[in-house]
Amino acid sequence: MPISARDRDRPRRGPVLVGLLAATLALAGCAGPTQPKEYGEAYQANFMIGCTGVEPNEQGQFTDPTRGTVPYCECVYQGLVDTVPWEQVDAFEQQQSQEEAGQIVVPANIQTVYDRCKQADPS
Question: Where are the alpha helices (H) located in the chain, listed in sequence order?
Answer without folding.
Answer: 5-9, 14-28, 41-52, 70-83, 86-98, 108-120
